[in-house]
Structures are given as C-alpha cells and as structure tokens.
Amino acid sequence: MLVRVGQVVEHLLVMPLTSFEMAKVLVLMLLSGGSTPVESQPKWLRYVTYLLPARHFVSFSQVIIYRGGGLGAVWRQFLMVAAVGVGFFVYSLALFRKSIAVSK
What we know:
5 helices; 0% strand; extended; mainly alpha
C-alpha cells in the first residue's frame, strides 16, 4: 500500500518535462516499426523515420530473430545506425567544444 501511495505522490511531484520526454519516447517507439508496421504510415512519415535509429534497430532485429538472417542481410541497417550514431557524436562534440570555449 505504501508503495502505491509513494508512486502517486512521486507522479504528482514530477516535473512536466519528464512527462513530455516520456511522450516523445513513446511516439518515437511507435514510429520505429516495433509496434506497428512502418508500411502503414504515410509516405512522408516513412522518410522521416529513416532518421530514427530505433527504426533500423527494429528492422535488423526482426531479420536476425525471425528470419535467421546474418550480417549480409542487415549490413545496410547496421550502416545506417552507425551513420546516425556518428552524426549525433559529431554534433555533441561540436556542442561540447563550444561550451568549453565559452567557459575559458
């Protein structure tokens, strides 16, 4: 009983940003193709989902787990996840260097 009361109090005291972040993650996961097929989305939205690493992860996970595919079947998805990762790394490195330069 105390656990439930604690969870309710915590839920009431949590910042609204946390709820926004959870909603954002939920939407991104729904767009990834893990819950609903990407093919059922509008065409313009399918192109947007190519930028989501979760879409490629779900794609190559399904090929490996359900179809028993190897690296030859999923190298494009691995390459896309790596490219998105490198892009985010370069962007965060630039922001980090900028913040270091301002603090000097």
